[in-house]
């Protein structure tokens, strides 16, 4: 029985593993296209029917229970418009009935006839015109509330349209000048109704099933292959009746203005597939809300991309409005129409790259600095647009990035790991507060090391006692590490914000991944000051020596702190010292004595003090050694001898060098205070040294 249960368990487990993943409609359509069961045109049509929830979507494309819902690109209706002429007749008919304006759908369904393009469905619908704005708003007859709402919508759009014209230099396309005959497979014709004249038609309707407040829809239009993949086309607007009835005047104004700006975007020819321009269209249309009224700030509601630095600009849509705001703030509003004119010959991202002075390589890192949007910046979105959002790292509900308060551990060390992962056109921020008085040395590994063609690093550096900051471009990508000696007056940094940007926008560009460390220590790095004393004692049957050498006011000064890659400032030369010596001794029957001063060797090319520091905390502290160099390295002793021996002079080599302490090399242990004694070859050398600040 136990064996049977085990077998059943294995079978059931295998069965559960083998269950196919539930697919939604879009995934099923894509899979059928991959199997070459449907054409590209029918794929577009079926995707559209799935998007609008049309009852004519074939049952085999309905979503499985438990499938994860997704949606296609926002403006893919332009692809549908282009492909409808090549769709199977049943799919084309269902798509056609949704693409044409709402009043004509009902007429077509009830009569089975295709309405003439110029026919006005006056039986059940009425309209209100605005001649100056070229606008017509439709509503159902016999419904006074709809009539009043249509007036509000008309007046709201009539206020937005002149601003769009001022910005872009033209208005929407007239819908009565288009080709009104749409041919589909089997040579079946479809009329394309447009409301009776060349005005922009706006229809009050029900968009609840689409979850939309309002929509801009292009009319189906014939495409001349080889001229452009995404041709300009007239359009109409649909407004959700329930939403508009409850919306404030301000909300109507910016929302309808956003949709009308889509109608302006549809007046431009595009080189590539229409769907490849959706994201930038949504970003600029959301920015247009700010252009309509800078005080309402409805665009601020789209904040995810602004807050989430590691999210790529490529693939983001509505919430990229802040990038266009930055461009307009920097280069004026003319950059927006220039961008759309460029799209006739370029895909969206490359068109934007060519439109901006310096392209993404220069402009995206500059935007990223403003994207920090807080101290130490003194200018940015918080001033320009009262936008108080700050960057986060990751999902929208993650915590805001705040400066890391650098605190040294018990060993006087600190390490932070920057695990940087940036897709193309994204950025991240790392902020550090170095205000603790214990910190003397800071080293930051360069996140752009050997990646000049992808990564830009800008460091926002605030120095102690300063209210402003320096913006420093770390442009030397062959430099592995940037170091700061806080003992040195000119390098006493209080805080750093690193703005790391992947400005690469090339097609197929990969995510950039780099691990860099931020390190800080209490290790002295500017000058070391103190005293060194050496004693020598030696006695034998034939000779004796007693010497004392003292060096006071000893100052070791750091050499070029970057002379050792990957290390903190660790090489010092002797800047100065007062060196005195005394000597008494004998060689045979001759006795000698000496006293005086020795000159310190202050050649800056000599290393008088050196240490091995750690590279990444919390590894053990390193060793150190020093030697007080003199010129010459020895002093002369005059020996007086009894006759008949002759007196003579002999050199005595001075030794003010560190040696082993308790049999081991000395450790600098954080370098707050070095006070040790070593014994080697008859010499006892003691020292008392401390780092000092500039």
Protein described:
The chain is α+β, with helices and mostly antiparallel strands and 694 residues long. It is 26% helix and 28% strand. The strands form five sheets. Strands 17, 18, 19, 20, 21, 22, 23, 24, 25, 26 and 27 form an eleven-stranded antiparallel beta sheet that branches. It has a five-stranded mixed beta sheet with strand order 1-2-5-7-6. Helix 3 crosses helix 5, helix 7 (144-168) crosses helix 9 and helix 10 crosses helix 12 (321-331).
Describe the sheet with the most strands.
11 strands, antiparallel
Share of residues in strands: 25-35%
CATH class of the largest domain: Mainly Alpha
Rounded radius of gyration (Å): 39 Å
Inertia-based shape? rod-shaped
Number of helices: 16
| CATH-derived topology of the largest domain | Neutral Protease, domain 2
- Helix content range of the residues, please? 25-40%
CATH architecture of the largest domain: Orthogonal Bundle
The structural class is alpha+beta
Number of DSSP-assigned strands: 27
Low-confidence stretches: 1-16, 562-566
Sum up the structure in keywords.
rod-shaped; disordered N terminus; 16 helices; Neutral Protease, domain 2; Jelly Rolls; eleven-stranded antiparallel sheet; alpha+beta
Brief account:
Strands 17, 18, 19, 20, 21, 22, 23, 24, 25, 26 and 27 form an eleven-stranded antiparallel sheet that branches. The chain folds into three domains: 117-384, Neutral Protease, domain 2 (Orthogonal Bundle), CATH 1.10.390; 404-521, Sandwich (Jelly Rolls), CATH 2.60.120; 527-692.
Q: Secondary-structure map with pairings?
A:
Blueprint: H1 2-18, H2 25-34, H3 40-52, H4 77-83, H5 89-99, H6 102-111, E1 125-130, E2 135-140, H7 144-168, E3 181-184, E4 188-191, E5 200-205, E6 214-218, E7 235-240, H8 241-246, H9 249-265, H10 278-292, H11 304-307, H12 321-331, H13 335-342, H14 348-355, H15 359-372, H16 381-384, E8 404-405, E9 413-422, E10 426-433, E11 441-445, E12 455-463, E13 470-473, E14 481-485, E15 493-502, E16 512-521, E17 527-539, E18 543-558, E19 571-587, E20 590-600, E21 609-611, E22 624-626, E23 630-631, E24 634-640, E25 648-653, E26 674-680, E27 683-692
Parallel strand pairs: 2-5, 5-7, 8-10
Antiparallel strand pairs: 1-2, 3-4, 6-7, 9-16, 10-15, 11-14, 11-16, 12-13, 12-15, 17-18, 17-27, 18-19, 19-20, 19-21, 20-23, 20-24, 21-22, 24-25, 26-27
Helix pairs in contact: 2-3, 3-4, 3-5, 7-9, 9-10, 10-12, 13-14
């Amino acid at each position: 029985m136990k064996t049977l249960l085990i077998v059943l368990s294995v079978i059931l487990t295998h069965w559960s593993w083998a269950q196919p993943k539930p697919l939604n409609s879009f995934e099923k359509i894509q899979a059928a296209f991959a199997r070459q069961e449907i054409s590209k045109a029918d794929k577009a049509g079926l995707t559209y029917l799935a998007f609008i929830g049309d009852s004519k979507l074939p049952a085999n494309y309905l979503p499985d229970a438990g499938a994860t819902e997704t949606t296609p690109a926002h403006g893919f209706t332009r692809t549908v418009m282009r492909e409808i002429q090549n769709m199977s007749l049943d799919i084309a008919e269902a798509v056609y009935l949704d693409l044409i304006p709402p009043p004509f759908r009902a007429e077509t369904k009830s009569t089975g006839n295709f309405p003439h393009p110029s026919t006005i469905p006056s039986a059940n619908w009425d309209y209100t015109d605005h001649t100056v704005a070229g606008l017509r708003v439709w509503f159902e007859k016999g419904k006074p509330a709809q009539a009043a709402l249509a007036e509000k919508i008309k007046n709201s759009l009539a206020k937005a349209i002149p601003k769009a014209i001022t910005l872009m230099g033209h208005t929407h396309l007239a819908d009565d000048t288009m080709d009104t005959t749409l041919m589909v497979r089997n040579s079946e014709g479809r009329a394309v109704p447009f409301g009776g004249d060349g005005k922009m038609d706006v229809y009050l309707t029900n968009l609840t099933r689409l979850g939309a407040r309002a929509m801009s829809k292009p009319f189906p239009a014939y495409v001349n292959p080889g001229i452009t993949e995404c041709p300009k086309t007239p359009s109409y607007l649909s407004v959700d009746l329930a939403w508009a009835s409850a919306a404030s005047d301000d909300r109507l104004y910016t929302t309808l203005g956003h949709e009308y700006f889509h109608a302006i975007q549809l007046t431009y020819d595009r080189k590539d597939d229409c769907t490849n321009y959706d994201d930038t269209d949504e970003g600029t249309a959301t920015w247009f809300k700010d252009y309509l009224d800078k005080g309402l700030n409805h665009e601020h509601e789209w904040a995810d991309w602004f807050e989430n630095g590691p999210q790529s600009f490529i693939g983001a849509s509505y919430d990229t409005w802040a990038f266009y705001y930055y461009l307009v703030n920097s280069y004026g509003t003319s950059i927006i129409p220039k961008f759309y004119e460029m799209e006739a010959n370029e895909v969206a991202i490359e068109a934007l790259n060519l439109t901006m002075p310096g392209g993404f390589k220069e402009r995206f890192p500059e935007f990223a600095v403003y994207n920090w949007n807080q101290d130490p910046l003194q200018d940015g979105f918080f001033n320009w647009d009262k936008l108080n959002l700050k960057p986060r790292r990751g999902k929208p509900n993650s915590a805001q990035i705040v400066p890391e308060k650098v605190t040294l551990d018990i060993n006087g060390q600190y390490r932070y790991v920057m695990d940087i992962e940036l897709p193309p056109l994204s950025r991240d921020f790392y902020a550090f507060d170095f205000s603790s008085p214990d910190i003397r040395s800071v080293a930051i590994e360069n996140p752009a090391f050997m990646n000049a063609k992808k990564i830009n690093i800008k460091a926002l550096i605030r120095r102690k006692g300063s209210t402003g900051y320096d913006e420093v471009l770390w442009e030397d990508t062959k430099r592995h590490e940037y170091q700061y000696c806080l003992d040195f007056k000119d390098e006493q940094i209080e805080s750093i914000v690193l703005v790391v940007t992947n400005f690469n926008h090339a097609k197929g560009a990969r995510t950039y991944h780099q691990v860099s460390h931020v390190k800080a220590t209490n290790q002295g790095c500017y000058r070391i000051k103190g005293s060194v004393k050496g004693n020598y004692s030696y006695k034998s049957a034939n000779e004796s020596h007693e010497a004392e050498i003292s060096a006071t006011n000893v100052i070791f000064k750091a050499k070029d702190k970057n002379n050792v890659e990957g290390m903190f400032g660790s090489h010092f030369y002797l800047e100065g010292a007062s060196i005195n010596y005394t000597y008494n001794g004998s060689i045979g029957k001759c006795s000698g004595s000496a006293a005086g001063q020795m000159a310190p060797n202050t050649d800056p090319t000599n290393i008088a003090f050196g240490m091995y520091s750690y590279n990444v905390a919390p590894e053990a502290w390193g060793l150190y050694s020093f030697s007080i160099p003199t010129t010459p390295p020895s002093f002369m002793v005059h020996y007086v001898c009894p006759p008949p021996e002759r007196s003579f002079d002999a050199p005595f080599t001075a030794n003010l060098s560190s040696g082993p302490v308790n049999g081991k090399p000395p450790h600098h242990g954080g370098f707050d205070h070095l006070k040790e004694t070593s014994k080697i070859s008859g010499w006892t050398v003691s020292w008392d040294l401390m780092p000092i600040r500039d």
